[in-house]
């Protein structure tokens, strides 16, 4: 069975994508959130990023051709911005830490 044939993989990918879309839409209103709302938003983003890291690690460790192609596509896309996947995660971590410090988490 291929990596993408797994119902678990398909479900997790769909869930990650939907949650990311939802949080980015919600994030456009971040400046209007009260302190508790900001804390909740940051915690949800941290959780999402942790799950995304695990999901990407599955891709990296897989022997499946399509999984390897997906990793290479991500690397190619990020390289257009002068970034690696690790740098993307590091940047997101830095952003969330800065957001936390601004609300005296």
UniProtKB/TrEMBL annotation:
The lineage of its organism: Bacteria, Bacillati, Cyanobacteriota, Cyanophyceae, Oscillatoriophycideae. This is DUF1825 domain-containing protein. It comes from the Bacteria. It holds the Pfam family DUF1825.
